[in-house]
């Protein structure tokens, strides 16, 4: 493909050579270049691509895209742009022939609920025969293909490649998580979303390599509403006005508030044997009753958000109703059917805020006992241990302290950190280092009416110990324990 065609939507200056040349591929990782490629130099958090120019020249690249003036041998084309990440995104759109324009695109941003809502949308759309690709924290789904994710929002070239694969696989729509880092680092530049969606915002992702302040975090999330046609927002969030500040799209809202265009009313928690869920009424631009097969009041927001999106796809109400009766999102308030008079839930809550929200919403079901099993990741913030220990001691009737990816730390040391704060709060607890044994203990000692939460691992299918990932699926562990109990 001609380099100048790739640069069609980018402002650039030719520093050396010619833009009217053929290039084979666009690459931003020196370890992946091949002769004939154009190398885009990106300054990252660990490495500056401009410093790797001698390596890529040796590997035979034809052209370089840079954001600072550099000197290289004659014969190589050098293109100067203001921002190489942005140029990479626009060049990738062109290279894959603008796949986003061939799909109905839904981008979801917010601190919590993105992953859950994407799966709800996919489930509803596919229930009505609309083939839908998905991109997010857990995986990328393209037809029958599943690719594990590295980032929630992939880097632009990879993202455009996935979108092209979706078009080729016959998808009509894509639903994807758009992280604030994705917006900040131009991973989604060049896409004009049909629907930009805001779930909620609270302080998170602030620190080295992420955002410098809450204001900055909010600012980057707000950018989605300058690159979509319709914005669908949670009007119950205190910060929604900051998020849609300077928006360029049409705005629609959802929420529990009477001002929302699409509202949920008459929320009723339900519990039948081991199954937990919530019923509510949808009012406003649509009107019907939903029985959601997932517990938790915040899932009403996620479900309402999914309905507000799917409304644009002319879905029949009966398909929406049916989807919510069968929905299951891997590791997000995933109710494991125990066939016993107590409930077991697998969830991804792995910090103070999510654990607090999770335990609080489950308490509304008036369990006989709320049992919370969790550990904390090794080589991660130590603060998490004290905070999660405190929350569990305050809200759960029994805390089972165990392991969650100890990585290079001693599991017993992590457990001791957590226990110190559970004890400080006078929480009722026991500790069992081996997570399998801890789960077994919970089930063997369950009493009717209990809600048992396995928190922190969610969709993860491994336990990481000393650099090695050992297979571990909490669903399998539960299945084995229940079989042995028969
Ligand atoms: C801080 C950050 O965002 N890092 C991401 C970023 O790496 P980076 O820009 O720092 O890259 P770098 O390693 O400094 O390298 C700079 C450049 O040199 C190149 N390079 C590097 C080494 C080399 O030998 N040769 C070479 O050419 C690199 O390809 C790159 O072009 O680009 C990588 C490839 O696209 C990402 O995988 C990586 O995400 C890391 C794993 C990460 O943890 N990111 C987090 C902060 C993140 O993005 N999280 C959000 C939200 C998660 C959520 O809440 O759900 C997400 O969307 O995932
Ligand atoms: N709307 C919501 N509000 C608050 N908490 C939520 C909401 N939805 C889900 N949660 C809780 O947060 C956890 C993560 O939810 P989910 O994966 O859907 O969010 P996310 O925005 O994709 O998060 P991440 O940035 O961690 O990928 C869930 O396991 C649940 O405990
Ligand atoms: N993105 C988070 C996920 C944590 C999940 C938990 N299971 C753990 O490993 O601590 C992290 O890497 O800190
Ligand atoms: Mg996510």
Automatic annotation (TrEMBL):
<feature type="binding site">
    <location>
        <begin position="404"/>
        <end position="407"/>
    </location>
    <ligand>
        <name>meso-2,6-diaminopimelate</name>
    </ligand>
</feature>
<dbReference type="InterPro" id="IPR018109">
    <property type="entry name" value="Folylpolyglutamate_synth_CS"/>
</dbReference>
<dbReference type="InterPro" id="IPR035911">
    <property type="entry name" value="MurE/MurF_N"/>
</dbReference>
<keyword id="KW-0131">Cell cycle</keyword>
<keyword id="KW-0460">Magnesium</keyword>
<feature type="binding site">
    <location>
        <position position="187"/>
    </location>
    <ligand>
        <name>UDP-N-acetyl-alpha-D-muramoyl-L-alanyl-D-glutamate</name>
    </ligand>
</feature>
<dbReference type="GO" id="GO:0000287">
    <property type="term" value="F:magnesium ion binding"/>
</dbReference>
<feature type="binding site">
    <location>
        <begin position="110"/>
        <end position="116"/>
    </location>
    <ligand>
        <name>ATP</name>
    </ligand>
</feature>
<comment type="similarity">
    <text>Belongs to the MurCDEF family. MurE subfamily.</text>
</comment>
<dbReference type="GO" id="GO:0004326">
    <property type="term" value="F:tetrahydrofolylpolyglutamate synthase activity"/>
</dbReference>
<keyword id="KW-0133">Cell shape</keyword>
<dbReference type="GO" id="GO:0005524">
    <property type="term" value="F:ATP binding"/>
</dbReference>
<dbReference type="GO" id="GO:0071555">
    <property type="term" value="P:cell wall organization"/>
</dbReference>
<feature type="binding site">
    <location>
        <position position="380"/>
    </location>
    <ligand>
        <name>meso-2,6-diaminopimelate</name>
    </ligand>
</feature>
<feature type="binding site">
    <location>
        <begin position="152"/>
        <end position="153"/>
    </location>
    <ligand>
        <name>UDP-N-acetyl-alpha-D-muramoyl-L-alanyl-D-glutamate</name>
    </ligand>
</feature>
<dbReference type="InterPro" id="IPR004101">
    <property type="entry name" value="Mur_ligase_C"/>
</dbReference>
<dbReference type="Pfam" id="PF02875">
    <property type="entry name" value="Mur_ligase_C"/>
</dbReference>
<comment type="pathway">
    <text>Cell wall biogenesis; peptidoglycan biosynthesis.</text>
</comment>
<dbReference type="Pfam" id="PF01225">
    <property type="entry name" value="Mur_ligase"/>
</dbReference>
<dbReference type="GO" id="GO:0009252">
    <property type="term" value="P:peptidoglycan biosynthetic process"/>
</dbReference>
<feature type="domain" description="Mur ligase central">
    <location>
        <begin position="108"/>
        <end position="309"/>
    </location>
</feature>
<keyword id="KW-0573">Peptidoglycan synthesis</keyword>
<feature type="binding site">
    <location>
        <position position="30"/>
    </location>
    <ligand>
        <name>UDP-N-acetyl-alpha-D-muramoyl-L-alanyl-D-glutamate</name>
    </ligand>
</feature>
<dbReference type="InterPro" id="IPR000713">
    <property type="entry name" value="Mur_ligase_N"/>
</dbReference>
<feature type="domain" description="Mur ligase C-terminal">
    <location>
        <begin position="331"/>
        <end position="458"/>
    </location>
</feature>
<keyword id="KW-0067">ATP-binding</keyword>
<protein>
    <recommendedName>
        <fullName>UDP-N-acetylmuramoyl-L-alanyl-D-glutamate--2,6-diaminopimelate ligase</fullName>
        <ecNumber>6.3.2.13</ecNumber>
    </recommendedName>
</protein>
<comment type="function">
    <text>Catalyzes the addition of meso-diaminopimelic acid to the nucleotide precursor UDP-N-acetylmuramoyl-L-alanyl-D-glutamate (UMAG) in the biosynthesis of bacterial cell-wall peptidoglycan.</text>
</comment>
<keyword id="KW-0963">Cytoplasm</keyword>
<dbReference type="InterPro" id="IPR005761">
    <property type="entry name" value="UDP-N-AcMur-Glu-dNH2Pim_ligase"/>
</dbReference>
<dbReference type="InterPro" id="IPR013221">
    <property type="entry name" value="Mur_ligase_cen"/>
</dbReference>
<keyword id="KW-0132">Cell division</keyword>
<dbReference type="Pfam" id="PF08245">
    <property type="entry name" value="Mur_ligase_M"/>
</dbReference>
<keyword id="KW-0436">Ligase</keyword>
<dbReference type="GO" id="GO:0008765">
    <property type="term" value="F:UDP-N-acetylmuramoylalanyl-D-glutamate-2,6-diaminopimelate ligase activity"/>
</dbReference>
<feature type="binding site">
    <location>
        <position position="456"/>
    </location>
    <ligand>
        <name>meso-2,6-diaminopimelate</name>
    </ligand>
</feature>
<feature type="binding site">
    <location>
        <position position="151"/>
    </location>
    <ligand>
        <name>UDP-N-acetyl-alpha-D-muramoyl-L-alanyl-D-glutamate</name>
    </ligand>
</feature>
<dbReference type="InterPro" id="IPR036565">
    <property type="entry name" value="Mur-like_cat_sf"/>
</dbReference>
<dbReference type="GO" id="GO:0051301">
    <property type="term" value="P:cell division"/>
</dbReference>
<feature type="short sequence motif" description="Meso-diaminopimelate recognition motif">
    <location>
        <begin position="404"/>
        <end position="407"/>
    </location>
</feature>
<feature type="binding site">
    <location>
        <position position="460"/>
    </location>
    <ligand>
        <name>meso-2,6-diaminopimelate</name>
    </ligand>
</feature>
<feature type="domain" description="Mur ligase N-terminal catalytic">
    <location>
        <begin position="26"/>
        <end position="91"/>
    </location>
</feature>
């Amino acid at each position: 493909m001609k380099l100048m065609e790739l640069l069609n939507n980018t402002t650039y200056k030719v520093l050396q050579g010619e833009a009217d040349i053929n290039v084979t591929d666009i690459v931003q990782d020196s370890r992946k270049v091949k002769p004939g490629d154009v190398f885009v130099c990106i300054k990252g958090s660990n490495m500056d691509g401009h410093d790797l120019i001698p390596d890529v020249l040796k590997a035979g690249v034809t052209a370089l895209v840079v954001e600072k003036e550099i000197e290289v041998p004659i014969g190589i084309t050098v293109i100067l742009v203001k921002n190489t990440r942005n140029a990479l995104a626009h060049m990738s759109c062109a290279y894959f022939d603008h796949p986003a324009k061939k799909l109905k695109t839904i981008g979801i941003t917010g601190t919590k609920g993105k992953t859950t809502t994407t799966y709800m949308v996919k489930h509803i759309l596919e229930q009505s025969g609309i083939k839908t690709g998905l991109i997010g924290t857990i995986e990328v789904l393209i037809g029958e293909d599943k690719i594990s994710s590295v980032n929630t929002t992939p880097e632009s070239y990879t993202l455009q490649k996935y979108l092209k694969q979706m078009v080729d696989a016959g998808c009509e729509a894509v639903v994807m998580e758009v992280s604030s880092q994705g917006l900040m680092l131009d991973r989604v530049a060049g896409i004009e979303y049909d629907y930009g969606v805001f779930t909620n915002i609270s302080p998170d992702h602030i620190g080295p390599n992420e955002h410098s302040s809450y204001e900055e975090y909010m600012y980057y999330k707000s950018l989605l509403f300058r690159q979509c046609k319709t914005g669908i927002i949670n009007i119950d969030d205190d910060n929604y006005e900051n998020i849609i500040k300077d928006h360029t799209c049409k705005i629609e809202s959802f929420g529990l508030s009477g001002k929302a265009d699409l509202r949920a009313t008459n929320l009723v928690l339900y519990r039948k044997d081991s199954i937990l869920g919530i019923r509510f009424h949808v009012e406003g631009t649509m009107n019907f009753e939903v029985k959601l097969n997932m517990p938790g009041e915040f899932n009403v927001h996620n479900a309402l958000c999914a309905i507000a999106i799917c409304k644009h796809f002319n879905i029949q109400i009966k398909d929406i109703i049916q989807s919510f009766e069968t929905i299951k999102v891997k590791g997000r308030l995933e109710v494991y059917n125990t066939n016993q008079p107590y409930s077991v839930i697998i969830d991804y809550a792995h910090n103070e805020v999510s654990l607090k929200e999770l335990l609080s919403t489950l308490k509304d079901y008036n369990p006989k006992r709320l049992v919370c099993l969790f550990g904390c990741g090794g080589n991660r913030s130590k603060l998490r241990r004290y905070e999660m220990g405190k929350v569990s001691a305050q809200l759960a009737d029994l805390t089972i302290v165990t392991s969650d990816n100890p990585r290079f730390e001693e599991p017993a040391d992590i457990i001791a950190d957590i226990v110190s704060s559970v004890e400080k709060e006078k929480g009722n607890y026991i500790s069992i280092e081996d997570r399998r044994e801890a789960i077994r203990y919970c089930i063997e000692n369950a009493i009717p009416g209990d809600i048992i939460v396995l928190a922190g691992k969610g969709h993860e299918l491994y336990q990481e110990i000393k650099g090695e990932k050992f297979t571990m699926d909490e669903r399998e562990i539960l299945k084995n324990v229940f079989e042995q109990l028969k």
